[in-house]
Design a protein that fits this description.
The protein is an alpha/beta fold. Helices cover 37% and strands 14% of the residues. The protein binds pyridoxal-5'-phosphate. InterPro entries: Aminotrans_II_pyridoxalP_BS, Aminotransferase_I/II_large, HisP_aminotrans, PyrdxlP-dep_Trfase, PyrdxlP-dep_Trfase_major, PyrdxlP-dep_Trfase_small.
Length: 354
């Protein structure tokens, strides 16, 4: 603390990301990174970019990247906004579109960055409890609001919501912006991108960090009505004209060109998830249904804290949330490669026997 801090800095409660331990040989299943590397085409594109051109600023509009994303989704370039990770895209969305007279709504158990942005930008919000099965219940959002945001599948539960439910929300909620954060959608959840041409208040965000295995490159984007996108561009151009560096743009374009690699690796993750779910169930775990690259599980005989600590002693790191109490006994476990998942099951088997 210092006497030079502004009032807003005093009031901030920053987001705490999952730990990135510096220890070697850990089984790291705590931050939902992809166990497979990025496409070899991405690596080649990054190597090709490493040259004299780095002395020049990148394209402030990232127009080649936007065109590639627009084509991928069958949209217009003016329906795409790109940013330095989807967290940055979300930050601009909160500031540009979600600060309204009525409170913003989001689930009580969800991505914990949302309340952080509300604090940063002075946005009023109300949380909407998940139902008894830990699902988002659309009926609970059908009331006056200044905006609605949730991930689909939700985090950290992993539970997917059918796109028909999102459309039902959009039908009933036409006077505020609805943001669907599809960070994990490629692991078997239906996307709402197909709805953006019909609902001018819908924004859908995607990230390259999970299904494209590029968390280290920081790439995210939003698609939606051109009017919403224009608001985001205004904020971006008042903040940082060049958020997408030359490597990120080259890598983003190359990743979209390797559809076969993308399909193969995401299917491997989905298959491994199904295997992991059945292995955990065989050990007596309750596992919530997952449409993501992680699962949310608890065991009636142990607290979440005991399990997380016991795994850590065996060099396996998973994510455990102490709060809210309702989820304190769950572990959020990232789907690893087969060897990592087996090591996890082995470690848990040992723990449950002890
Ligand atoms: C990982 C994640 C993001 C942010 O991803 P970036 O790495 O910033 O692109 C956004 N929303 C949810 C729900 C996430 O889990």
């Amino acid at each position: 603390m210092s006497k030079f801090w502004s009032e807003i800095v005093h009031a901030l409660t920053p987001y705490v990301p999952g730990e990135q331990p510096k220890i070697q040989n850990l089984i790291k299943l705590n931050t939902n990174e992809n166990p497979y590397g990025p496409s070899p085409r991405v690596i080649a594109a990054l190597q090709a970019e490493a040259g004299d051109s780095l002395r020049l600023y990148p394209d402030p509009d990232s127009s080649r990247m936007k065109a590639a994303i627009a084509e991928y989704h069958g949209l217009h370039t003016n329906q795409v906004f790109v940013g330095n990770g989807s967290d940055e895209v979300l930050a601009h969305i909160f500031q540009a579109l979600l600060k309204q007279e009525l409170p913003l709504l989001f689930p009580d158990i969800t991505y914990s960055f949302y309340p952080v942005y509300c604090g940063l930008y002075g946005i009023e919000y109300e949380t909407v409890p998940l139902n008894a099965r830990f699902e988002i219940a659309i009926d609970d959002y059908l009331r006056p609001n200044g905006g609605i945001i949730f991930p689909n599948p939700n985090a950290p539960t992993g539970i997917p919501l059918p796109v028909a439910e999102i459309e039902r929300l959009l039908q009933a909620n036409k006077d505020s912006v609805v943001v669907i954060d599809e960070a994990y959608v490629d692991f078997g959840t239906e996307s709402a991108v197909a709805l953006v041409n019909r609902y001018p208040n819908l924004l859908v965000t995607h990230t390259y960090s999970k299904s494209r295995s590029l968390a280290g490159l920081r790439i995210g984007y939003a698609v939606g009505d051109a009017g919403l996108i224009e608001a985001l561009i205004r904020v971006k151009d008042s903040f940082n004209s060049y958020p997408i560096d030359r490597f990120a743009e080259a890598g983003a374009i190359a990743a979209l060109q390797d559809e076969a690699y993308f399909q193969h690796t995401r299917q491997q993750v989905i298959n491994a998830r199904e295997q992991l779910v059945s292995d955990l169930q065989a050990l007596g775990f309750e596992v919530l249904p997952s449409g993501a690259n992680f699962i949310f599980a608890r065991h009636a005989g142990y607290t979440g804290e005991q399990l997380a600590a016991g795994l850590r002693e065996q060099a396996v790191i998973v994510r455990h949330f102490k709060k809210p109490v309702r989820i304190a006994d769950f572990l959020r476990i990232t789907i690893g490669n087969d060897a990592q998942n087996q090591a996890l099951i082995q470690a848990l088997t040992g723990l449950l026997r002890a």
